[in-house]
């Protein structure tokens, strides 16, 4: 005998049994809980204050540029610093410039002033080098985020709130081995040399290019952003380089760190900073 199957249009409910009834009740209870919780969240949300996102950092797009093929854009001109002390009259052009450029680029004003002063010194002492503050800023951005790495902050005296000291150069994978050369005087390590300060100088290079930026007669300090920026400019300009040419710019940066990616990172920062500054 053939049993006719129930019609798909049959609206008569089928018995579910005890298990089916229990599952149905549980599902209904869960649905009610979710509904009540969502309503409570919605009421609470009406009384919340809006979340304020922190200001975005100045964007520096990475430029995968072919080494030696180009130089960063020319940066805006740095003004001469005005007289300080009781003889000062009116606003200091350097202060006005650093304020405006800092607002455009997010470079801390104290670091920016150091890069600008190094630019002015080299413009007077080695004009054929044609180094720019924006290239120094490109280096400072990579080496220590302009002196603000690992919780450090630059004071008005140009010193970081905590010493900036790199890893020991002990020959670990990807690290060059450089035994101690200064008895730990600069880096605090009597066994291995370490890069120090906001521009990350190793002791042997620091001794060769260091100069006290403010001319107060004290020994130059690699932790001081003014001294470090000036030493960086002197190092990059060494060998009578012309950093206004693509060949000279890349040779100088490779001297600082012989890495294509490093050079591209410095280029990216220097170019972005320069572009932002020319509109000021």
Beta-strand content bin:
under 5%
Order of helices and strands: HHHHHHHH
Radius of gyration: 31 Å
Cα shape? globular
Contiguous low-pLDDT stretches (5 residues minimum) are: 1-20, 26-56
Helicity range of the residues?
40-55%
Distance between the termini: 96 Å
Structural class: mainly alpha
Mean pLDDT: 83
Please give the number of β-strands. Answer: 0
Number of helices: 8
Report the biggest beta sheet as strand number plus sense, adding barrel if it closes.
none
How is this structure best described in words?
- There is one protein chain.
- Helix 2 crosses helix 3 (109-125) and helix 3 (109-125) packs parallel to helix 6 (225-237).
- The protein has eight helices and no strands.
- The chain has helices at residues 17-46, 93-105, 109-125, 133-144, 203-209, 225-237, 246-256, 260-277.
- The protein starts with 16 loop residues before the first helix and ends with a helix.
- The chain is mainly α.
- 43% of the residues lie in helices and 0% in strands.
What is the compact description of this entry?
The protein has helices at 17-46, 93-105, 109-125, 133-144, 203-209, 225-237, 246-256, 260-277. The protein is mostly helical and 280 residues long.
List the helices and strands and how they pair.
Elements: H1 17-46, H2 93-105, H3 109-125, H4 133-144, H5 203-209, H6 225-237, H7 246-256, H8 260-277
Helix pairs in contact: 2-3, 3-4, 3-6, 4-8
Which properties best describe this structure?
280 residues; mainly alpha
């Amino acid at each position: 005998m053939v049993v006719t199957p129930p019609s798909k249009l049959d609206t008569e409910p089928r018995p579910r049994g005890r298990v089916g009834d229990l599952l149905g009740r549980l599902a209904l209870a869960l649905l009610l809980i979710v509904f009540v919780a969502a309503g409570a969240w919605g009421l609470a949300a009406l009384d919340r204050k809006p979340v304020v996102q922190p200001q975005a950092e100045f964007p520096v797009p990475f430029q995968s540029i072919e080494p030696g093929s180009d130089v960063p854009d020319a940066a805006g001109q740095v003004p001469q610093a005005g007289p300080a002390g009781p003889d000062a009259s009116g606003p200091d052009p350097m202060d006005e410039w650093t304020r405006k450029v800092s607002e455009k680029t997010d470079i801390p004003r104290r670091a920016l002033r150091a890069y600008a002063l190094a630019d002015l010194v080299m413009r007077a002492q080695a004009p054929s080098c044609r180094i720019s503050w924006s290239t120094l800023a490109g280096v400072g951005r990579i080496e220590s985020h302009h002196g603000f790495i690992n919780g450090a902050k630059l004071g008005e005296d140009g010193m970081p709130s905590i010493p900036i000291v790199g890893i020991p150069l002990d020959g670990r994978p990807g690290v060059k081995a450089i035994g101690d050369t200064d008895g730990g005087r600069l880096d605090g390590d009597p066994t291995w040399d370490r890069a120090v300060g906001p521009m990350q100088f190793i002791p042997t290079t620091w001794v060769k290019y260091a100069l006290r930026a403010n001319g107060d007669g004290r020994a130059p300090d690699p932790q001081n952003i003014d001294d470090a920026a000036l030493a960086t400019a002197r190092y990059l300009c060494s060998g009578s380089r012309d950093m206004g040419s693509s060949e000279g710019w890349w040779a100088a940066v490779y001297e600082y760190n012989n890495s294509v990616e490093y050079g591209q990172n410095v280029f990216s920062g220097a170019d972005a900073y320069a572009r932002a500054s020319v509109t000021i």
